[in-house]
Amino acid sequence: MSVPTAEGPGAPQRTLARRALVAGSVGNFIEWYEFGVYGCFATVFAANFFGADTGDGTESLIKTYASFASAFFFRPLGAALFGRIGDRFGRRPALVLALALMTGSTTAIGLLPTYATLGAAAPWVLTLVRVLQGLSAGGEFGGAVSLMTESAPQGRRGLYGAWQSFTVALGLLAGAGLAAGAAAVLGERALYDWGWRVPFLLALPLGLVALWLRLKLEETPSFRRTRRTGAGSPGSPATRGEVFRSIVTGIGRIMGWSAAGYTFLVVLPAYLQNTLGATFQEALTAAVLANLGFALTILPAGALSDRVGRRSVMVAGAGLVVLLAFPLLWTVRSGSTPVAKGLVVLLAGAVVGLMAGPGPAMLAEMFPTRVRCTGLGLAYSLANAVFSGCAGLIITELVQHTANADIPAYYTVVTCAISAAALLTLRGDDHRRALRD
User: Fold this and answer.
1) Which of 116, 202, 250, 384 is most enclosed, with most CB atoms within 10 A?
2) What is the tens place of the pLDDT at every residue in 335-390?
3) Which distant-in-sequence residues (6+ apart) come within 8 Å of 35 by Cβ?
4) What's phi and psi for 114, nearest 5 deg?
5) What is the pLDDT of residues 34-56, one digit of tens each?
């Protein structure tokens, strides 16, 4: 894909839409690349920062996931902060600031001293950096999805919004792939000693390219129009009440996507190692396959939702998770062949993609332009804080205390069943309506 160049306000709408798509996507890629690496390296961080090599490995892994979850709980604050900037001053400044913070904090992880060097302060420093990442990630989603959907050509909002989820998949896939490659090339000893730093340091050149692209952005037509007309003041009580109700509804509609996505795509490697005794390489290979399946269905699901509606596609995805979660987990845990297990893991990621493809456009359609960055950002970040960020912590704790290896299936089935019910309240023609100002 060629890099877009600066053009004036008269540039063709399709060119501006593509530029917005690229600039919005690259930031998402970096954000989720880092989360993918951290998830795959959970046992590495447990050893290097939480003392797994000096005590109980499971307890250290739980502490690692607690640090992972802490970043998610700062996402709503980031969504409110950067969302306010995006709704008042424009999508571009909010996205530039969020990306700069994300790039700096991700690079910093690759430079941090470990427990062996810094002692008990090491996990606290790591957690502080992850808090900064949480703030930036909270602002990234609302700004990027607003940018993509507001710039989309008529009838393609689902496809354009799906690129947000697709770059999430690419980021997770790149993170998992690089982690698996590093483990294969370096071996576990070198990986645990120093090799884990390399993927985080690579975020710096990636971030500089993304920052350059975002600095060349223009504001979306929807934002410029509301600035001219002054429509939909975000301070009115009616709007505040509407936004609050939409945020709560949005959380219900995407909680299954959040929970199943992180369970199958990020938590799976540590679960396979810690609970089922898989090797580090086997666990990372499973993560790559799950993320590959996820990536394969996102764009088709987004495009399909432009034809048949968001409700049909997303309910199908949530329903399939409810039906397949237990059989999928039993197959992975059984004596099935490696090929069968690989296909099952691929399928697990694919059904999550059915929810993730139409999800961004669905959220964008719930909020007016004046509060879109803030509203959809808060809905997404709150759902992720509770149902994604805590997935590893909840699953690891419950498996440890109950000795029930089916806990991941219970978790995804319950959350997706609730989401399916909430998604049924969507209007069937939302995909055909113009975004509200």
Assistant:
1) 384
2) 667 777 788 889 999 999 999 999 999 999 999 999 999 999 999 999 988 887 77
3) 137, 171, 172, 175, 266
4) -90, 180
5) 877 877 787 788 888 876 555 55
Amino acid at 315: V
Token pair, residue 338, equals 């490696």
Per-residue pLDDT at 9: 46
For the chain, what's the residue count?
437
pLDDT tens profile 66-120: 776 777 789 899 999 999 999 999 999 999 999 999 999 989 999 999 888 888 8
**Higher pLDDT pick, 346 / 172:** 346
Region of 3 (left: φ > 0; alpha: ψ -120 to 50; beta: rest) is: beta
- Long-range CB pairs of 192-200 (<8 Å, 24+ gap) are 192/44, 192/47, 192/48, 196/41, 196/44, 196/45, 196/48, 197/110, 197/111, 198/110, 199/33, 199/37, 199/110, 199/175, 200/34, 200/37, 200/106, 200/107, 200/109, 200/110
Burial 22-31 (b: 16+ CB within 10 A, else e): bbbbbbbbbb
What is the predicted pLDDT for the residue at 268? 73
CB 365 within 8 A of CB 150: no
- Nearest Cα neighbor of 91 from 23, 152, 37 is 23
Looking up tokens 């909430």 gives 422
Give Cβ neighbours of residue 144 (< 8 Å, ≥ 6 apart): 24, 25, 27, 28, 95, 164
Measured distance CA(407)–CA(268) in Å, rounded: 12
Confidence band, pLDDT 50/70/90 cuts, at residue 272: confident
Q: What is the mean pLDDT of residues 230-245?
A: 64
The helix, strand and coil proportions of the chain, stated in percent and rounded to the nearest 5, come to 80, 0, 20
Cα–Cα distances in angstroms (integers) from residue 301 to residues 102, 144, 351, in the given order: 28, 19, 10
Interatomic CA distance for residues 319 and 200, integer angstroms: 36
Return all residues near 360 (Cβ < 8 A) that are at least 6 apart. Answer: 145, 148, 149, 161, 162, 164, 165, 376
